[in-house]
């Protein structure tokens, strides 16, 4: 299956240079997604010299695989915060997210970023009686916490609904165009952006942080992991993050209206599907997003995507399905992201655990981290403090995620075969095989080239699984993903999968 996000089709490309020498800056930002570019903007505006180091292309990570919705409520719903946090915190979460959406809107105007930003209402609804109480609970939570939410009428929601609520004044945009546009606008002598420049190592010392990259050494007073999840084994956040893969599809309507707004609906026994429309010029699309599963733990990834196509067919008169894609998100054990110094006094910052709300949380991270580095007060620093994690608060989720990880270490592999099975491996397929007593990740490219790699993830040595939709090797433990050539696509791993040569030796 060929996967490509809608945003990739409707964005240009950026042309920032590769780093080719050693440099010194105030702040090194690793990652050029919405988090990295927003942080760079605010630090440069505060007078710091900044270098953004992006392994591939600006905006090409998860930022270009989102739904492009901007809202102050959250995807796991506000009521999920109630068991852990008081009303004051719930209000602050909504307030902080609102200020991030406002900054995006201001930037769109200030830099004239052509990214189809518009204000729309956001809806949460139940499609059956079974799920109506979830919507009722969300409404009660919002009322109690003093977060604005209203009852929606069935005329507003283009789906069968038993209960619905509305949050007015939310927004949508093309996330990739926004980040590319912002990066082009902020690049300057004191805010350098480097593409195709991968950071391989972080070393914190008394003076600051030294980063080894594919293009040179970067010495900085501070460094920021704006990589969606922190890189490497030294940063221990992976024990409190659940990595999930979720999917999107875009299609043309043959007849009927494209709905305007953000629509989150509960279906069946509580699965959530998100629907929005996107138009640019004469082109219009309907998008459905959902079908999450733990990374590397789906039996058939393609099936998850096809379920979304079926959903669209069940609810709309669908013509061509134009785009199918997957994206990653990381659920924090105690429901809120981790933003700030990785530990008390550290010069290395993290911004992670965004769930599927990171277009807003990424911008908020930029606001919190830039204020912290500049020594300014920020009203939201404490809410998201990265060093806040306490096992007591997060115990249930923490244990659940880590039990799941432990199971992946000891589980026997599905689809395991022996060396003879290589003969039957078709183009575009992958399989774990046993070869000379080693576990090998074997895959064939579209053109038939056989790739053999050690099946052990280079992060913490779990065995990777084949993702048959995106044709990648995905690690079921902490979410690292690798392409067929073994290169790191995302997740905490820093090193590629080790090549397995013909004599059976790993190199
Ligand atoms: C299906 C789906 C739908 C979503 N929809 C929404 C939505 O509607 N609204 C919302 O708010 N959020 C949404 N999200 C979440 C949101 O997209 C992400 O949280 C957000 O884009 C994360 O941005 P980021 O900049 O932190 O990470 P990314 O965009 O992933 O950027 C990280 C960058 O770091 C780079 N990098 C990684 N390793 C290195 C290295 N070693 N050296 C240098 N660079 C490196 C990568 O190449 C990448 O460009 C969705 C997520 C998914 C999966």
Helix content: 10-25%
CATH topology descriptor of the largest domain: FAD/NAD(P)-binding domain
Mean pLDDT across all amino acids: 93
Q: Describe the largest sheet.
A: 9 strands, mixed
Structural class: alpha+beta
CATH architecture of the largest domain: 3-Layer(bba) Sandwich
Oligomer: single chain
Distance between the termini: 30 Å
The unreliable regions are: none
3D architecture notes:
- The chain is of the alpha+beta class.
- The protein has 3 domains: 7-64 and 177-239 and 334-392, FAD/NAD(P)-binding domain (3-Layer(bba) Sandwich); 116-171 and 242-329, D-Amino Acid Oxidase, subunit A, domain 2 (D-Amino Acid Oxidase, Chain A, domain 2); 417-490, 3-layer Sandwich (Rieske Iron-sulfur Protein).
- It is built from 9 helices and 25 strands.
- Strands 3, 4, 5, 6, 11, 12, 13, 14 and 15 form a 9-stranded mixed sheet that branches. Strands 1, 2, 7, 8, 9, 10, 16 and 17 form an 8-stranded mixed sheet that branches.
- Strand 20 and strand 21 (450-454) form a beta hairpin.
- The longest helix is centred in the N-terminal third of the chain and has 24 residues, at 87-110.
- The two termini are 30 Å apart.
- The model has no long low-confidence stretch (mean pLDDT 93).
- Residues 30-36, 53-56, 60-63, 65-69, 198-199, 226-228, 231, 246, 248, 289, 327-329, 354, 356-360, 362 line the site of flavin-adenine dinucleotide.
- This is (2Fe-2S) ferredoxin.
- Keywords: 2Fe-2S, Disulfide bond, Iron, Iron-sulfur, Metal-binding.
- InterPro entries: FAD-dep_OxRdtase (IPR006076), FAD/NAD-bd_sf (IPR036188), Rieske_2Fe-2S (IPR017941), Rieske_2Fe-2S_sf (IPR036922), Rieske_Fe-S_prot_C (IPR005805), YhfW_C (IPR038010).
- Residues 417-507 form the Rieske domain.
